[in-house]
């Protein structure tokens, strides 16, 4: 299936016969709607906190909003607010925001978890960082911070200077509940936070029945670095851009930067020159290849066991993209290359040499991929290990808000580069890789195929850049030195990161810093599917499933 | 067959040689010669392992994965062996809370010693052969199997769930694979009609065919390649290397039974594993590759034998770098449903063929 033409460029008015999507939804929701808001990306509906489930069920079942992309919580001057950013997997340009204001003194709102499973973690995060309580939530606990934390860091009355004195004995002792005295048939096992296969600092509380996983619960937050708050304290123009590199730090930096750039450019109405868009597209796809190489390499490592050839081969090829990215941006990991309105500098001189280098890499890539297929996907032992294990059915994946290769490995044909075009993607010829096996193997294949597609995109970008007239190489549009977007403008924008839908919500407050900066991390949503995948399977398959999710804890915990 | 039995050498060639050199005979000669011989062979194996563990393994894995590996200390980085020895022995021996003390301390000793004892009956050529009992093959398998006991002790006494899982896995695996291993070895015994190691080697020295003036000896790898492949695969499981390294499986159960061991205990485990691989290699060489046989004078036998066991070592490292690990349930499936059936089929077929032809 080839690239479809973008349907309707005006995203706020996709409905037929002059009636906006907002009006239609308002009719559908009827009395539930207290008032209307206009977010830059979607119509917003303010509803009562005790009607959340009614409204969301209606929107999901009758209007087809099957993707709860993100839950943003914030404290305003006179109220708390939870915003549910809804989308459709079939057409992510159709968006709706459900705004749930809650009382300042008693911030209790109905949980959306029965409607969208993904709300589980999102609402826990909202409770943890902002302090909104969700009624009917199955497990209302902190998620990023320790249970003993005092206060909610993103709430207005949070005392930042108050020391968090938490004696060791008050911390949960990970050995305490080992359930060894239960006399039951199960065994409790801590996988992580320091474990060779958790890809960072992730703690899986696993209950084993023999070698089979009876239950698994992820304990995250070990790498929480207050990224949202840091962005809220930084200026739009220059200070925020370095942070995205540090979310998904597996060399997917440019993809992350684009998420911020897209949201901020929409917010401040900044145009990006076509030339810069092509450079962005090329750089982003190089990052995607680098990220997928590492994902494939480490997945092989998880399944193969010992330090094996395939991991080093993947790193070897990833190194080539890193060299190209270093030439382009001057950095190997923390690129800080995008600017609002373009990129920071033009391609390196001599240009011919740079293009030559990319072309050499692209020429060698098919052979390298062939080698990967020989060593990984065509290997029969790997197939018996991965085919049919870690199964994530399509409807479950949707309910958990899975995106990226995880969703596409479950047969969900969803890629924001095509479905909600940005950059230069809609003018290039490439395909979205989808596999419908729903298992670990499909996710692996999707990543390997996406590397091929990214190579196609890069090649076309290089062709375009090579012939680009010299007098027309504008790398940045004119952007004011200080950006002060209009007060109370809200936007939620997402791009297709290496791991999936990376979204940014920004509410401006009239100053040069965001009033609320919320990151929708694809890994955060994807990781939630782990129990669904691994319950009843063997420990090795749990590890393989975790590897196939390709999480980066820097992005999960932010 | 009858004539072959007459060719059998002296019962304990190395012991006799040493005793002869010292001018001792009788019981004293046997004891002193035996002890010195054992000392010699054990040290040869330990040196081999010292070269294999810190150096050769790194170099081999590195060439599989496009790297260089150790090359800073000494020629070809060989002195890393000394550096590693000093490093490992100077590390703190951490004894975790709640370990089951005598068992926890004994486990790392049992492992290398069970493998070392196996070498007593292996004819390594050039007269290096410590003992040659009539049930030599059975003895070798029996002492090698003691290693499982060490693994279970380590897994159970470490008071660590990963260790426990590793210990359980290693027992399950060893039971599932030792039966095919021994049954396959039995098919060799059907050919030789003897369990005596020197006998098994001697039979293989017979010519199989002569092609264009080159005589191909009757190595059982040529006579019964099917049994050879079976034995090679079962041996991988026996020594716990990919695709059968589930008892350790660093990415799943961290390090299995050796998770809690550090310093010199860790060295002993590591040592035990490598000696075990070499013992597996020695058995393969003796049973299927003609033991110390090779071109050139008989004095070169030990060289040929060393080359053969290193070839098997290289093979295990190759598997380690290139073959994915199977899951524990799949491993047990392959063992009980595949290898066991195949090994018995091989045994029965061999018996029929030998019975009809001989």
UniProtKB/TrEMBL annotation, chain A:
Residues 46-162 form the NADH:ubiquinone oxidoreductase 30kDa subunit domain. One of its GO terms (molecular function) is oxidoreductase activity, acting on NAD(P)H. It is found in: Cell membrane. Gene3D superfamilies: Cytochrome-c3 Hydrogenase, chain B, NADH:ubiquinone oxidoreductase, 30kDa subunit. It comes from the Archaea. PROSITE patterns: COMPLEX1_30K (PS00542). NCBIfam families: PRK06075.1. It catalyses: a quinone + NADH + 5 H(+)(in) = a quinol + NAD(+) + 4 H(+)(out). In the C-terminal section; belongs to the complex I 49 kDa subunit family. NDH-1 is composed of 13 different subunits. Subunits NuoB, CD, E, F, and G constitute the peripheral sector of the complex. Residues 1-20 are annotated as: Disordered. Pfam families: Complex1_30kDa (PF00329), Complex1_49kDa (PF00346). GO terms for cellular component: plasma membrane. This is NADH-quinone oxidoreductase subunit C/D. Keywords: Cell membrane, Membrane, Multifunctional enzyme, NAD, Transport. InterPro entries: NADH_Q_OxRdtase_suD, NADH_quin_OxRdtase_su_C/D-like, NADH_UbQ_OxRdtase_30kDa_su, NADH_UbQ_OxRdtase_CS, NDH1_su_D/H, NiFe-Hase_large. It comes from Halogranum rubrum. Residues 1-11 have a biased composition (Acidic residues). PANTHER family: NADH DEHYDROGENASE [UBIQUINONE] IRON-SULFUR PROTEIN 2, MITOCHONDRIAL (PTHR11993:SF10), NADH-UBIQUINONE OXIDOREDUCTASE 49 KDA SUBUNIT (PTHR11993). HAMAP family: NDH1_NuoD. Residues 308-558 form the NADH-quinone oxidoreductase subunit D domain. The keyword NAD applies. It is a peripheral membrane protein.
UniProtKB/TrEMBL annotation, chain B:
Keywords: Membrane, Transmembrane, Transmembrane helix. GO terms for molecular function: NADH dehydrogenase activity. It is a multi-pass membrane protein. Pfam families: NADHdh. It comes from Halogranum rubrum. One of its GO terms (cellular component) is membrane. The chain crosses the membrane at residues 27-56, 68-86, 106-125, 137-155, 207-234, 264-289, 301-318, 338-357. It is found in: Membrane. GO terms for biological process: aerobic respiration. This is NADH dehydrogenase subunit H. InterPro entries: NADH_UbQ_OxRdtase_su1/FPO.
């Amino acid at each position: 299936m080839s690239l479809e033409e973008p349907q309707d460029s005006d995203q706020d008015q996709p409905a037929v016969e002059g009636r906006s999507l907002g009006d239609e939804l308002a009719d559908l929701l009827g009395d539930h709607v207290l008032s209307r808001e206009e977010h830059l990306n979607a119509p917003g509906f303010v509803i009562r906190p005790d009607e959340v489930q009614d409204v969301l069920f209606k929107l999901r079942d009758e209007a087809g909003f099957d993707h709860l992309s993100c839950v943003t919580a914030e404290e305003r001057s006179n109220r708390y607010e939870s915003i549910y950013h809804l989308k459709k997997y079939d057409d992510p340009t159709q968006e709706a925001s459900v705004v749930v204001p809650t009382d300042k003194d008693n911030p209790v709102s109905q949980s959306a978890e029965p409607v969208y499973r993904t709300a589980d973690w999102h609402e826990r995060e909202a409770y943890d960082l902002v302090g909104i309580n969700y009624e009917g939530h199955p497990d209302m606990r902190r998620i990023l911070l320790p249970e003993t934390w005092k206060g909610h860091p993103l709430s207005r009355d949070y005392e930042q200077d108050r020391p968090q004195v938490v004696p060791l004995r008050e911390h949960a002792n990970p050995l305490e509940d080992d359930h060894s005295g239960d006399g039951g048939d199960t065994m409790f096992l801590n996988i992580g936070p320091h474990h060779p296969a958790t890809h960072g600092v992730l703690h899986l509380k696993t209950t084993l029945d023999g070698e089979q996983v009876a239950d698994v619960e992820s304990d995250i937050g070990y790498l929480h670095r207050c990224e949202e708050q840091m962005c809220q304290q930084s200026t739009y123009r220059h200070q925020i851009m370095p942070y995205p590199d540090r979310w998904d730090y597996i060399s997917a930096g440019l993809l992350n930067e684009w998420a911020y750039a897209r949201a901020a450019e929409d917010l401040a109405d900044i145009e990006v020159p076509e030339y810069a868009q092509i450079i962005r597209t090329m750089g982003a796809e190089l990052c995607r290849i680098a990220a997928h190489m590492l994902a494939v390499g480490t997945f092989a490592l998880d399944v193969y066991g010992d330090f094996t050839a395939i991991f080093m081969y993947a790193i070897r090829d990833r190194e080539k993209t890193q060299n190209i990215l270093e030439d382009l941006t001057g950095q190997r990991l923390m690129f800080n290359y995008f600017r609002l309105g373009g990129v920071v500098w033009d391609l390196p001189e001599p240009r011919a040499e740079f293009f030559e280098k990319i072309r050499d890499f692209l020429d060698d890539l098919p052979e390298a991929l062939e080698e990967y297929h020989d060593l990984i996907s065509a290997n029969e032992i790997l197939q018996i290990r991965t085919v049919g294990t870690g199964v994530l059915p399509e409807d479950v994946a949707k309910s958990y808000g899975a995106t990226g290769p995880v969703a596409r490995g479950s047969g969900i044909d969803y890629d924001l580069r095509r479905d909600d075009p940005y950059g230069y993607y809609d003018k290039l010829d490439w395909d979205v890789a989808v596999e419908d096996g729903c298992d670990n193997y499909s996710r692996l294949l999707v990543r390997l195929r996406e590397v091929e597609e990214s190579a196609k995109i890069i090649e076309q970008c290089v062709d375009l850049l090579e012939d680009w007239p010299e007098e027309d190489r504008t790398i940045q549009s004119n952007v004011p030195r200080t950006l002060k977007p209009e007060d109370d403008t809200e936007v939620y924008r997402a791009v297709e990161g290496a791991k999936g839908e990376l979204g940014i919500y920004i509410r401006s407050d009239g100053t040069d810093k965001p009033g609320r900066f919320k990151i929708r991390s694809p890994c955060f949503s994807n990781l939630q599917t782990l129990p669904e995948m691994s319950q009843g399977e063997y420990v090795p398959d749990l590890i393989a499933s975790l590897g196939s999710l390709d999480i980066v804890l820097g992005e999960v915990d932010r | 067959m009858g004539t072959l039995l007459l060719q059998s050498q002296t019962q304990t060639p190395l012991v006799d040689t040493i005793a002869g050199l010292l001018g001792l005979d009788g019981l004293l000669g046997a004891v002193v010669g035996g002890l010195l011989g054992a000392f010699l062979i054990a040290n040869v194996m330990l040196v081999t392992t010292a070269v294999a563990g810190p150096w050769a393994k790194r170099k081999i894995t590195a060439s599989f994965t496009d790297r260089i590996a150790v090359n800073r200390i000494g020629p070809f980085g060989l002195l890393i062996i000394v550096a590693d020895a000093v490093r490992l022995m100077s590390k703190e021996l951490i004894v975790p809370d709640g370990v089951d003390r005598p068992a926890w301390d004994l486990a790392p000793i049992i492992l290398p010693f069970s493998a070392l004892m196996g070498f007593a009956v292996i004819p390594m050529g050039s007269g290096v052969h410590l003992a040659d009992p009539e049930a030599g093959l059975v003895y070798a398998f029996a002492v090698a199997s003691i290693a499982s006991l060490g693994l279970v002790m380590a897994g159970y006494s470490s008071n660590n769930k990963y260790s426990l899982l590793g210990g359980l896995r290693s027992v399950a695996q060893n039971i599932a694979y030792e039966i095919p291993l021994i049954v396959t070895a039995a098919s060799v015994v059907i050919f030789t009609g003897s369990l005596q190691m020197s006998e098994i080697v001697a039979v293989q020295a017979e010519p199989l065919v002569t092609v264009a003036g080159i005589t191909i000896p009757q190595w059982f790898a040529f006579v019964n390649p099917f049994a050879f492949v079976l034995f090679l695969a079962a041996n991988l499981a026996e020594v716990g290397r990919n695709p059968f390294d589930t008892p350790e499986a660093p990415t799943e159960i961290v390090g299995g039974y050796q998770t809690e061991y550090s310093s010199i205990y860790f060295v002993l485990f590591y040592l035990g594993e490598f000696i075990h691989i070499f013992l597996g290699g020695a058995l393969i060489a003796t049973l299927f590759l003609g033991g110390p046989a090779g071109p050139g004078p008989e004095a070169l036998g030990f060289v040929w034998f060393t080359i053969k066991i290193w070839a098997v070592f290289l093979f295990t490292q190759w598997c380690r770098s290139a073959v994915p690990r199977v899951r524990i349930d799949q491993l047990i499936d392959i063992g009980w449903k595949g290898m066991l059936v195949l090994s018995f089929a091989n045994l029965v077929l061999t018996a029929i063929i030998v019975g009809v032809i001989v």
